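Known limitations

Files may contain more than one protein. Parsers should not assume a single record per file. Below, a two-record file is shown to illustrate correct handling: read the sequence, read the token line, then continue until end of file.
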Amino acid sequence: MTQASSWTAFSTVMRRDLMVVMRRRSDVLNPLLFILMVVSLFPLAVGPGPDILGRIATGVIWVAALLSALLGSERLFRDDFLDGTLEQLTLSPHPLSLLAAAKIVVHWLLSGLPLVILAPICALLLKLPSEAWLTLLATLVAGTPILSAITAIGAALTVSLGRGGALLSLLLLPLFIPLLIFASGAVEAALVGTAAWPQVLLLTGLSLLTLLLAPFAVAAAIRVSVN
């Protein structure tokens, strides 16, 4: 087994998961529609005043992102577990952590990247001041990979529990709180005119550390769940 063959396996898992998900387009559209619905309806609940909406816009966007990450997270490994694919991955000669990383990347491409693309629309709908748009985008780019990585760990831990959706939510939501605090703090700093880069750099560091360690945690959780 060579490094080239391992990366070939990585790309194969990515292509396979993308093809499977594209056959169930509702799994891709539902989280995005959820975010747009929350962002569109929230001004109706608190009023259209730009002062109020601008101050809470970041929190609304990030809370919607956190909740949308939980939509369908139970199915991240469930279908592979039921049809035996997950067991075959554990028996593969390639590092399971590398194959788990491929699934994390696919999850981000289908959930995190569209959110980053939708960020300007969400900011416009919630009347977020333009000087904070770039900071919001930076927090989403740095923070959404953490969402995908932590979601993958939780999904791998609960994949063998039948209906583990409620348990998965209970496991993941406390882990998302620091991310929400740092992201909101960065945008708040931009709004008041102070430096936002310390929080953004901290989010970036957390993201890199999470992406480095998460594949090994997912691989260990998959082995426990399969065995």
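...continuing to the second record:
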Amino acid sequence: MHTNADSSSNVCIEDNFMSTGDDLVAVKSGWDEYGIAYGRPSSNITIRRLSGSSPFAGVAIGSETSGGIENVLVEHVTVSNTGTGIHIKTNKGRGGYIRNITVSNINLNTVRTGIKIAGDVGDHPDKNFNPNAFPVVDGLTLKDVWGDNVQLPGLIRGLKNSPFTRICLSNIKFENFKQQGDPWKCEDVSGYSMEVQPLPCTELASPYGPNLLIHGLPPGFLKSRCNV
């Protein structure tokens, strides 16, 4: 079995062991123009003390995000023999938002991708979606993550027309990763990182965030805005 929280508020999912052919736990809020019309977000959701295995994701947020997803806490998750440890996903045409997400105390063993945050995931119910309905992804904190035998530590790919912002990584360590070349793949993202091994992509490598002085912001501004 797997668990979906869809257009739901004030939900607690805890103390579960799962083995399934889908994401173990997924948070969603509606699909393209139908989710936008319904307009009901998923918010105030806690997922804790979860363990299991899946060919897909341990915990997924999205890709159906059209009503918006916010204020989600994911903590104390252990997954093994899994496709992706933590998968935060959306797509153009979705609209909506993903914001104020905190993921902490994650243990990954034998997974293809440790952390994946992507804006090009999921199909569409029909051809009536608005291709200019771009989702907003902002304020994601991932901290205290350990992984062993991870093929690719991280892939974070935003949208050119809606870059992902305030992606904050802290105290993350992947050992025995298998990726040849860059262990982190990033595009159209900005954020902050501290104590991440292997070193993240340049867009997230600074403890102060990119281009702060250009925008007149003091060093440490992004760190103060992250839940780390």
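Parsers that stop after the first record will miss the second one. For reference, the second record is described as follows. The chain has one domain: 3-225.
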